[in-house]
C-alpha cells in the first residue's frame, strides 16, 4: 500500500516568511512523529501525535514552530518567521500503534527547507 | 539523555568486501534498536529492527547484532555491492522515552566502488 508522503518535497523561503509542511501518514496509523535533520546530522525529534492529540512537543526548537493533526490523519508542521538555522530536512514518520508499543516507524521522503 | 554514536563516519571500499558498521548508545534501557538506510534526497528505509530481548536479526546480506549490556550494535554487510552505497543510521527507542521518540546517530556514509 501507499507509504508516508510529504509535500512539498523542496521549499525555498526567504528569511521571515512562514512555511507549512504537510505529512500524509499511512492510513490507520495512530502515531505520527516529526523529526528535523540538519546537514550531516542524524534526525532529531520534534513532536509526537497520538491520533489528534499532541502528546509531546518537547523537541520543538522555538515557539515559531507549531504542529497540528486536527482529524488524526494528515499533519502540518508550520514554521513562522523562518530563520536560516531552520534550513534542514523535515521528516515525518507514522506507526501503527501507540508510541510505547514496539511498532516500527515508517518514514516519508522528507521536505528539504532552505531559508535564504 | 540517550546519546548514540556511529563509527566510522565514512567508509569507502571496493565491491565484494565484507563490512562492519558500529553503533553505541549510552543508556542500555532500550525497547529496541533499528538500522536505517538513507539515500541522498530520500527518506529513511528501515533495514532491521532488533528488540531488546533479541541478540541479532538477519535479512539477506545484512546481519545486525545487539549487546544491550555494553550499549553496542553492529551491522554486518556481506559481499558489498555498489548499490549498497548510502548513509546508514542507527536509532534506539529507549525506555526513558515512553512516547516512542527515536534517538539517532549521525550515520556512516558508505561508498562501494566497482
pLDDT < 50 runs, ≥5 residues of chain B: none
> Tally the helices of chain B: what do you get?
0
* Average residue pLDDT of chain A: 94
Low-confidence stretches of chain A: none
Largest interface here, residues on each chain?
A-B, 31 and 26 residues
Net shape of chain B? globular
Percent range for helical residues of chain B? under 10%
The termini of chain A sit apart by 37 Å
Number of strands of chain B: 11
Task: Give the percentage of residues in beta strands of chain A.
Answer: over 45%
Residue share in β-strands of chain B: over 45%
Helix/strand-derived category of chain A reads mainly beta
Task: Give structural notes.
The complex is a heterodimer of chains A (116) and B (114). Chain A has no helices and 11 strands. Chain A is mainly β and 116 residues long. Chain A starts with a strand and ends with a strand. With 114 residues, chain B is mainly β. Chain B is built from no helices and 11 strands. In chain B, strand 4 (30-38) and strand 5 form a beta hairpin. The termini of chain B are far apart. Classes of the chains: A mainly beta (116), B mainly beta (114). The A-B interface holds A 4, 6, 31, 33, 35, 40-45, 48, 55-56, 59, 91, 93, 95, 98-102, 104-110, 112 and B 4, 31-32, 34, 36, 41-46, 49, 51, 89, 91, 93, 98-107.
Describe the structure using short key phrases:
heterodimer, A: about 120 residues, mainly beta, 7-stranded mixed sheet, 4-stranded antiparallel sheet, 11 strands, globular, B: about 110 residues, 6-stranded mixed sheet, 5-stranded antiparallel sheet
Please specify the SSE layout and strand pairing:
The complex is a heterodimer of chains A (116) and B (114).
Chain A: E1 5-7, E2 10-13, E3 19-24, E4 31-37, E5 44-50, E6 53-56, E7 65-68, E8 75-79, E9 88-95, E10 106-107, E11 111-115
Parallel strand pairs in A: 2-11
Antiparallel strand pairs in A: 1-3, 3-8, 4-5, 4-9, 5-6, 7-8, 9-10, 9-11
Chain B: E1 4-7, E2 10-14, E3 19-25, E4 30-38, E5 44-51, E6 56-59, E7 62-67, E8 72-77, E9 86-94, E10 103-104, E11 108-113
Parallel strand pairs in B: 2-11
Antiparallel strand pairs in B: 1-3, 3-8, 4-5, 4-9, 6-7, 7-8, 9-10, 9-11
Amino acid at each position: 500500500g501507499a507509504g508516508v508522503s510529504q509535500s512539498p518535497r523542496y521549499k525555498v523561503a526567504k528569511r521571515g516568511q512562514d512555511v507549512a509542511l504537510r505529512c500524509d501518514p499511512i492510513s490507520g496509523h495512530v502515531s505520527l512523529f516529526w523529526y528535523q535533520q540538519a546537514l550531516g546530522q542524524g534526525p532529531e525529534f520534534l513532536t509526537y501525535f497520538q491520533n489528534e492529540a499532541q502528546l509531546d512537543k518537547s523537541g520543538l526548537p522555538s515557539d515559531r514552530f507549531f504542529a497540528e493533526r486536527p482529524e488524526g490523519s494528515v499533519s502540518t508542521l508550520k514554521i513562522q518567521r523562518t530563520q536560516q538555522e531552520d534550513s534542514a530536512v523535515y521528516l515525518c514518520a507514522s506507526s501503527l500503534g501507540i508510541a510505547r508499543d514496539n511498532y516500527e516507524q515508517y518514514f516519508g521522503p522528507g521536505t528539504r527547507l532552505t531559508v535564504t | 539523555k540517550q546519546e548514540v554514536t556511529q563509527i566510522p563516519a565514512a567508509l569507502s571500499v571496493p565491491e565484494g568486501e565484507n563490512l562492519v558498521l558500529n553503533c553505541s548508545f549510552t543508556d542500555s534501557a532500550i525497547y529496541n534498536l533499528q538500522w536505517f538506510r538513507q539515500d541522498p534526497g530520500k527518506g529513511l528505509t528501515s533495514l532491521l529492527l532488533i528488540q531488546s530481548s533479541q541478540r541479532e536479526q538477519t535479512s539477506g546480506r545484512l546481519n545486525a547484532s545487539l549487546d544491550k549490556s555494553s550499549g553496542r550494535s553492529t551491522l554486518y554487510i556481506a559481499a558489498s555491492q555498489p548499490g549498497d552505497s548510502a548513509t546508514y543510521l542507527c536509532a534506539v527507542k529507549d525506555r526513558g522515552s515512553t512516547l516512542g521518540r527515536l534517538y539517532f546517530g549521525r550515520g556512516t556514509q558508505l561508498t562501494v566502488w566497482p
